[in-house]
Amino acid sequence: MKYIRLFFCIAIVLATLVRTALTQEDGEAEDNSNSTVVACYSCNSTEICDSEQNEENGTTVECDGQHCWTWKYDEDGIVTYARGCGDVCTEDSKELDCMTSNNKTECTKCCSDGLCNSDLLNHAALARINPLVFLSGLGSVFACIFVIDNIHNY
């Protein structure tokens, strides 16, 4: 009987992980048909763009039906940035993506919230987890702890 409970506990955790994976629509482009306007930071290498942007030092632009983007270029140790609007923002391109060729590195990242392209792309952003999925997973962990604790009491 105690092993059946443990089996169900493991099944709950696996179901939560599968549900999390299914909510991550990898590679699919977001629907731009609703033509929403989002404010994004906008700058290029000729302006002050090499610091994290905020309301005090950043210039904003309205992006109609587009997404915010940040580009980082590193050529032989000389780093420049650009920020602005871009058309397609897939789940993959929301993660920091860097490519290097011939001593040149180009990193890109897009996002869909207002003024979300403020960072310097120096580190991988923390994964954004759906709060309901997180709470479901946390509940599963507590359920497993409860089941395992009850197994030891038999």
Automatic annotation (TrEMBL):
Keywords noted in UniProt: Signal
Signal sequence, start to end: 1-23
Highest rank taxon of the organism: Eukaryota
Protein name as it appears in the record: Uncharacterized protein
Organism of derivation: Clavelina lepadiformis (Light-bulb sea squirt)
